[in-house]
Automatic annotation (TrEMBL):
Record-linked SUPFAM superfamilies: 2Fe-2S ferredoxin-like, alpha-helical ferredoxin
The keyword Ubl conjugation appears for this protein: no
Pfam families the UniProt entry points to: Fer2_3, Fer4_7
UniProt-recorded name of the protein: Succinate dehydrogenase/fumarate reductase iron-sulfur subunit
Stated family: Belongs to the succinate dehydrogenase/fumarate reductase iron-sulfur protein family.
Domain 4Fe-4S ferredoxin-type stretches: 153-183
Cofactor names: [2Fe-2S] cluster; [3Fe-4S] cluster; [4Fe-4S] cluster
Keywords: 2Fe-2S, 4Fe-4S, Iron, Iron-sulfur, Metal-binding, Oxidoreductase
Alphabetical GO biological process terms: respiratory electron transport chain; tricarboxylic acid cycle
């Protein structure tokens, strides 16, 4: 199998106070079976051997679950493959000689801490404001014994697939977090354990979202298009309905 050579343009920023800049690198000996993060690992190995500072980027599970592999690739959050996180994006989606531009999420509420790493603790604070239930849900057998309509259960599961990566924010021109918040509000409000606190929950979470400086939704659907779990914007409609009725 022939190896590829790619021309990378990577955002480098020492810390939150640094102005930052784009830096060019060559990615050599890249094969099509590598993930995007494995390609960056190879580039970093070469930088370390040269005594240069490696490119900082977030990663953990590398299985499309944790949501930490947040970066914009050629202008698209998580890259060109629909419904795919950066860590699950493979290099066969690129061609030998391609130029690949890699940047961090761009949002006021997600300040860059170093290179491609951003501080997404704003999402944590929104969850802390109300993304939980206080009722005693009992053990697993009790939960399974509680009748829930299949339509509601399926919708709740669709919303619960949100991994909190922030691609919706990065894709939105207003840096709106409404897809994230709507998913978290909906998956609890659709289940009987979360119904009791649903009015208080939506008020608190929307207030926290606004406080963090996220923008509002203008219904252009970039968030749904960029979401690696393909969460529907219909949940934003549900969020607005829950908020108005609260």
């Amino acid at each position: 199998m022939d190896s590829m050579k790619l021309h990378l343009k990577v955002w480098r920023q020492k810390d939150k106070n640094d102005k930052g800049r784009m830096v060019s690198y060559e990615a050599n000996n890249v094969n099509e079976h590598m993930s995007f993060l494995e390609m960056l690992d190879v580039v970093n190995d070469d930088l370390i051997k040269k005594g240069d500072d490696p490119i900082a980027f977030d990663h953990d599970c590398r299985e499309g679950i944790c949501g930490s592999c947040s970066m914009v690739i050629n202008g698209v959050p998580h890259g060109p493959e629909k419904g795919t996180t950066t860590c699950q994006l493979h290099m066969r989606k690129f061609k030998d000689g391609d130029t690949v531009v890699i940047e961090p999420w761009r949002a006021k509420a997600f300040p860059v801490t170093k290179d491609l790493v951003v501080d997404r603790s704003a999402f944590d604070r929104i969850i802390q404001a109300g993304g939980y239930v206080n009722v005693n849900t009992g053990g697993a057998p009790d939960g399974n014994a509680l009748p829930i309509p299949k339509v509601d259960a399926d919708l709740a599961m669709d919303a619960a697939t949100c991994i909190g990566c922030g691609a919706c924010v990065a894709a939105c021109k207003n840096a709106s977090a409404m897809l994230f918040v709507s998913a978290k509000v909906s998956h609890l409000a659709l289940l009987p354990q979360g119904v009791v606190e649903k009015k208080e929950r939506v008020r608190k979470m929307v207030k926290a979202m606004d406080k963090e400086g996220f923008g509002n939704c203008t219904n252009q659907y970039e968030c749904e298009a960029a979401c690696p779990k393909e969460i529907s914007v219909n949940f934003i409609t549900r969020l607005n309905k829950e908020y108005i009725s609260s």
